[in-house]
Amino acid sequence: MNELRVTFCGQVYGFAPGQTVRIGRSPENAVIVPDPIVSREHAVLRWQSDGWVLDDLGKGRTFVGGMPVNSVPVSQPLEVRLATPLGPELRIESAPGPSLEPAVTHVGAEEPDQQAAAEQHRGNARHASAIHRSGLWRGDISGSDSSPVYSQLPAHHARMESPGGDFATAVHILLPIRSWLKDTGWKQGSRLLVIAYGLLPSLFVVLFSGTTDVNVPGWAYSLAIAPLWAVAFWLLIRPGRITKLIAWLAVAIVAAVMLLLPVLTLPWENALGNGDSRNVLPWIYGVGFAEEVTKALPILVAALLLRWIWKTTLDVRVWMFLGTISGLAFGVRESVLYTSSYLIQGNHRAGLAIPLILSFAQRVFVDGFQHAVWAGIAAFFIGMGVNYRRRRIPLIIFGITLPAVLHGLNDWATQLASHWLWIVMEAVSLLLFIGYTMSAATIEKQVRETPLFRGESMIMERVKLGQDGTKPGR
């Protein structure tokens, strides 16, 4: 009887006739292929009266020689790819046992010299499908010919029999639409994200060109750009996997920011921001603190509630990332307010086209980003203050004051005749933010190891509790 051999990643699996060999991502399979594009139960090898047969289970796609197959006999070694023509590769072959006569190949009864020639042909290092394709493009064979691999397929599986001949075969190879549509790689969010963002600007033009609501462009473009910045901040901060807890915290923080902006920020700014625009102090306490407190307050409340009620602490990088989400939410809402006013100005005043377009773009593409940078810095210190109780209040106050001052100086600089100081303040804010993203773990470690900050730390309590099983005394 013929033993089945399956080779994957250098490991050879052997199976006796009569067994059912399942292939897929699930640990229950006989041959496990731990690749996310492979189905949990992808293919199966079954023993039949005339030998082994490979069957695709229909949950993914199985390729032999670059072409999808449903069922193929293992009468000669097969190079099999799972999910896509370039997916994980397996070599499947049926090896005769020592007591059996040599297996007869698919070419049928041959004379000795014909058998030798066939063996030499099968020993060629090139795969049979490669021989077929190279011959096709040289014009030596037609698209209706079959390679040695496809001569083993049943007639209804012979994919090279195309009504259009060579041209149809070439189109099928070069534009594998059906293969793409069934490819599990579409489940990867990055590919769908590229398509969505490639179509969004055109969709906005088609959907909103007839609207008279001046808020619509601001909402459309700001909400489209904000997720891209969120992805960028996640890559910079590296807060780890986004769990359900973090996702719900993000939703709650966004809702809180939207609620606080009209009831806290705007009244604060109206009450304290009516001084001389050339004086820097009103910009700091009337704008910087008003907006940074609005963004930081949901972070602080969430962190304290998690610690006091649910006895849970999060890494400071998680709070820093949630801070950027808070800033993005604030920036989106603010950009809508500003961009609508720009559009109204453009309808009533001539000569403002270029400045208004530039201001619109700055608000839509960068406003949320700037607010996220300042809120991220504040959230970093809020996380430190909540986790390390001894210096909680000074850390939180410093964490809110630093971005508030930077924010106030940034907005004040825009009122000057020269805006270069504005660029400098933005650069300083970015350098601080990126510096904290790079050294957040190091700073937290130093704080954890320094008695000046350590005090009663919930993180230290967890470490000790995990070591001796009892809660340390205070």
Portion of residues within helices = 55-70%
Note poorly predicted spans. Answer: 98-162, 456-474
What would the principal axes of the Cα set say about the shape?
elongated
Tell me the Rg in angstroms. Answer: 33 Å
Structural class: alpha+beta
Strand count? 11
Work out the strand percent.
Answer: 5-15%
Helix-strand pattern, N to C? EEEEEEEEEEEHHHHHHHHHHHHHH
**Mean pLDDT figure:** 79
Strand order of the largest sheet: 2-1-11-10-7-8
Number of helices: 14
Taken together, the total number of domains comes to: 2
- What distance lies between the first and last C-alpha atoms, to the nearest angstrom? 74 Å
Major sheet: 6 strands, antiparallel
Q: How would you characterize the overall build of this protein?
A:
The strands form 2 sheets. The chain has a 6-stranded antiparallel sheet, with no helix packed on it. It folds into 2 domains: 2-182, Tumour Suppressor Smad4 (Sandwich); 188-468, no CATH class. The model is unreliable at 98-162 and 456-474 (pLDDT under 50). The protein is elongated, with a radius of gyration of 33 Å. The protein starts with a strand and ends in a 6-residue tail after the last helix. The chain has 474 residues and is an alpha+beta fold. It has helices at 112-122, 128-138, 166-174, 177-182, 189-208, 216-237, 244-272, 280-308, 316-348, 353-387, 392-413, 420-449, 451-454, 458-468, and strands at residues 2-8, 11-15, 20-24, 31-32, 43-48, 51-56, 62-64, 67-69, 71-73, 78-82, 89-96.
